[in-house]
Amino acid sequence: MEPYRIKVVEPLPVTTRAQRERALRRVHYNLFGLRADEVTIDLLTDSGTGALSAAQWAAGMAGDESYAGSRSFHHFQDVVRDLTSYPCVLPVHQGRAAERILFSTLLSPGRITLSNTHFDTTRANVELNGCQAVDLPCPEARDLDSDEPFKGNIDLDRLAEALRGPDASRVALVVMTLTSNGEAGQPVSMDNLTRAAALCRAHGVPLFLDAARFAENAWLVTRREPGYRHMSPRQVAEQAFRLADGCMMSAKKDGIVHIGGFLGLRDRSLAERCEPLLIATEGFPTYGGLAGRDLDMIAQGLTEVTDPRYLQARADAAQHLARLTRAAGIDIVEPPGLHALYLNAGRLLPHIAPHRFPGHALACHLYLEGGIRSVELGSLYLGSEDDNGAPVTAAPYELVRLALPRRTYGLSHLDYVGEVLTAVAKDKERIPGYRLIEQPPLLRHFRCKLEPVPE
Ligand code: F0G
């Protein structure tokens, strides 16, 4: 059972099918356009959507809002240093600000960054600096159905090749994303991380962690990796941070807060080089775009998130929804991680071609059937068409992510999601594809307009 009880509740919006049909038409079949109070169960993201503990709210009340040198900052800094071992801690308003500040300081045009997988804002921040972000996922990641425990690993052979090949001098840094959000939330093993760190050290290339889900990765290591079963998630996390030169952290995930993040660095001179940009764009180094209360809430969240009972309950919830999804006849990317389930929409809806967006079609029907909001990760997100709408590139897989906000929904909510999945899967032949009618030139999935295409 969950190791907490409920003290504050918020009503769930309940809508009729007719209301949902109207809402979906109004937003041109783009779920990002919905008002949140038109959504019954919101599985769009696990970012900034968690429930804070009583201790976090209390810590927030005790926050010190001094502009410089606040008590809250010093507490936050102590907690982050203790967890990560990095002496320099730069607070930022969210993870992507840490990416922007680190990359703008370390990268120059023409350089390359390597990763198990770059999250999309990470890639965007690399490219905005005129550099190339290269993903090196392990080959096991290609098989969505296999039970391989660490499909988030980096391909060590390709990493070694890249670090000694003809472009080696252009490699500026390596990012290990824990867990790999781009690979369906799959974890990275400590063995893989240790070997990647050794390669980076041997070639004099700095290694950074994208630590957004460091505690969930650590939990999966204690469950799946021989040699780590006797360790606590906290001990594994500490060891992971020690292997790297620094981290970029979105505290909206494993900080269990609504906003916040930080850049942790081992190298003091690099931190000094990052500071002017931090001050110019986020805030003075002792608040970095956050309120004092946010810093205290993050500090408390970081101490709660590695609690094995919390992580066990979170893993159990993901497993529970995974069982319901399989029972509904919908395949997921196996084995399930903790922060989300990824539904294999391409396999469920073979009658919908990639450029008619099977993932998007499934996401729309989860909303129509039961007011559930999810996010497409398929050809709408990753593919492209020519001016006449003919397909140019498709995504490798047509997936839908059901993200699980932390401490927010209970098992009966997930049972409801299971019922909706069952109803949608039963009627799958009747689900139409969708056509794009308008799209912005960049990041189209957020703002594009679509319409159903009846066969
Ligand atoms: N890195 C990873 C692995 C992420 O998943 C995210 C955000 C970021 C960095 C950026 O952090 O949002 O605080 O700026 N992921 C969210 C998601 C948006 O829904 O997966 P941020």
Mean pLDDT: 96
In whole angstroms, the N-to-C terminal distance is: 46 Å
Largest sheet: 7 strands, mixed
Strand content: 5-15%
Query: Widest sheet: strand order?
Result: 2-8-7-6-5-3-4
Give the CATH class of the largest domain. Alpha Beta
Cofactors, ions, other ligands: ligand F0G
Q: Show unreliable segments.
A: none
- How large, in whole angstroms, is the Cα Rg? 22 Å
What structural class should be given to the helix and strand makeup?
alpha/beta
Multimeric state of these chains? Answer: single chain
Percent range of helical residues = 40-55%
Strand element count: 16
**What is the count of distinct domains?**
2
Topology readout:
Blueprint: H1 17-26, E1 41-42, H2 54-61, H3 71-84, E2 88-92, H4 95-106, E3 112-115, H5 120-128, E4 132-135, H6 156-164, E5 171-177, H7 190-202, E6 207-210, H8 214-224, H9 233-242, E7 246-250, E8 261-265, H10 268-281, H11 292-304, H12 308-327, E9 340-344, H13 345-348, H14 358-370, E10 372-373, E11 375-377, H15 379-382, E12 384-385, E13 391-393, E14 399-403, H16 411-426, E15 433-438, H17 444-447, E16 449-453
Helix pairs in contact: 1-14, 2-11, 3-11, 4-5, 4-10, 6-7, 8-9, 12-16, 14-16
The protein binds ligand F0G.
The site of ligand F0G has 15 residues, from helix 4 and helix 5.
Care to describe what's here?
The chain is an alpha/beta fold. It has 2 domains: 17-39 and 307-453, Aspartate Aminotransferase, domain 1 (Alpha-Beta Complex), CATH 3.90.1150.10; 54-304, Type I PLP-dependent aspartate aminotransferase-like (Major domain) (Aspartate Aminotransferase, domain 2). It has helices at 17-26, 54-61, 71-84, 95-106, 120-128, 156-164, 190-202, 214-224, 233-242, 268-281, 292-304, 308-327, 345-348, 358-370, 379-382, 411-426, 444-447, and strands spanning 41-42, 88-92, 112-115, 132-135, 171-177, 207-210, 246-250, 261-265, 340-344, 372-373, 375-377, 384-385, 391-393, 399-403, 433-438, 449-453. The strands form 5 sheets. A 7-stranded mixed sheet has the order 2-8-7-6-5-3-4, with helices on both faces. Ligand F0G is lined by residues 45, 47, 94-96, 119, 121-122, 177, 181, 210, 212, 250, 252, 261. The site of ligand F0G has 15 residues, from helix 4 and helix 5.
